[in-house]
Amino acid sequence: MLARRIIPCLDVRDGVVVKGVQFRNHEVMGDIVPMAQRYAEAGADELVFYDITASSDARVVDKSWVSRVAAVIDIPFCVAGGIKSVDDARRILENGADKVSVNSPALARPELIEELEAAFGRQCVVIGIDSYFNKENQRYEVYQFTGDESRTRNSGWQTLDWVKRVQELGAGEIVLNCMNQDGVRQGYDLEQLAAIRSACKVPLIASGGAGAISHFIDVFQQADVDGALAASVFHKNIIDMSELKGQLRAAGVAVRNSFGE
Amino acid sequence: MSRLIIIDTGCANVSSVRYAVERLGVAVEVSRDLATINSAERLLLPGVGSASEAMKNLAERDLITTIKGLTQPVLGICLGMQLLARHSAEGDVDCLGLIPAEVERLEVAPATRLPHMGWNQITPADGCPLFSGIPAGSYFYFVHSFALPVGSWTRAVCDYDQSFSAAIQAGNFYGVQFHPERSAAAGARLLKNFVELPA
Question: A151 falls in which pLDDT band (50, 70, 90)?
Answer without folding.
Answer: confident
